[in-house]
Amino acid sequence: MIHQITRAELIVIAARLKQAQDMIGYSDERMASMFDISTVQYSKILRGHSMITEDKLIILKQEMNISLDYLITGQRAGRNVLISNQPMTEVEFRMYMEEISYYIENLPVELKKDRMMEMMRRFYKTFSTL
């Protein structure tokens, strides 16, 4: 069964694309040029009026090294620090950090303290072997 992408899903995908674009500092014009489309067409993609095509997804992966799993589904297929035994790209790392920051900012104070202690223990365990 083929999944028909809804407008709401297009808007979410567009938001992830814009987030990645902003993190690497590309203008809309540069993105449109990279995709070999007009800025008007790129604007339609960013507003969720048009889906980015498969050939543009390939360009996106090659030029910006963005996880297409994350871009399309919001999932990282169970991966966090390592993706296919390779470190996260700078864009993926920044997106991941923004997600964590947003999550923590919206927690009640007591949970923030618990989560911070848990993160510190994990960092210590991870980096103490360096």
Automatic annotation (TrEMBL):
Transmembrane segments: none
Gene Ontology MF, one: DNA binding
InterPro entries: Cro/C1-type_HTH (IPR001387), Lambda_DNA-bd_dom_sf (IPR010982)
HTH cro/C1-type domain location: 17-71
Source organism superkingdom: Bacteria
Protein name according to UniProt: Helix-turn-helix domain-containing protein
Origin organism lineage: Bacteria, Bacillati, Bacillota, Clostridia, Lachnospirales
